[in-house]
Write a structure and sequence with these properties.
Length: 199
């Protein structure tokens, strides 16, 4: 069919310089736009309106709890395997009896360790989420307070002394973690403040 019989004016042509872009093939008349509007430097992600551009404590809580359970199971399983080998060797057990005892040790100690770390992760995540919601921000103070409260609560039934020890352990771990994660900001502060370098 002849183009002249289509009834549409010939508005675009490949001979038009505006239709030829360096590095690209001639564009279709239906794609007549400036490619500069296409952001190709980095991938773009879609976020719900009003949502932050990074995950908050509530989103991280699920991975923290699951990861803690898996780490606890792995550590407890290795410890149970070691204790099982030692106990069965001292008892002189061999064959199927020894294999059964090894499985019992691994499962029992692995489950206990996974349960312990899982409970600690649930407490820490709960305190962190509540503090973030109450204060409206997520910073190092939330981390330190949540870890300290977790230690206090976890050892609260063992007496005041052990409760204080648990809180101190939580505070120490959280403080070291916060310092490590803030090391870049601390270094920038020291470079900006000559007095901190002894000048």
């Amino acid at each position: 069919m002849d183009k002249k019989d289509t009834g549409f004016p010939n508005m675009y042509s490949n001979a038009d310089p505006s239709m030829n872009i360096s590095g690209l093939a001639p564009l279709s008349p239906y794609l007549n736009f400036d490619p500069a509007y296409l952001q190709q430097s980095q991938p773009e992600f879609i976020f719900p309106e009003g949502a932050g551009r990074q995950r908050g404590r509530f989103e991280f809580a699920f991975s923290q709890i699951g990861g803690s359970c898996m780490v606890g199971a792995a550590i407890g399983g290795v410890g149970g395997l070691y204790n099982g080998f030692r106990s069965t060797s001292l008892a002189g057990q061999t064959g199927k009896l020894r294999r059964t005892q090894l499985l019992n040790y691994v499962m029992k100690q692995g489950a206990a360790s996974a349960n312990t770390l899982g409970v600690l992760a649930v407490m820490y995540s709960s305190f962190g989420v509540l503090l973030s919601w109450a204060r409206g921000t997520d910073d190092e103070a939330n981390t330190v307070v949540a870890a300290t409260a977790t230690g206090l609560l976890y050892k609260s039934s063992a007496g005041l002394r052990k409760c204080a020890v648990g809180g101190g352990i939580g505070f120490g771990i959280a403080a070291l973690y916060s310092l490590w994660m803030s090391r870049d900001r601390i270094q920038q502060f020291r470079q900006m403040n000559p007095a901190s370098r002894g000048e």
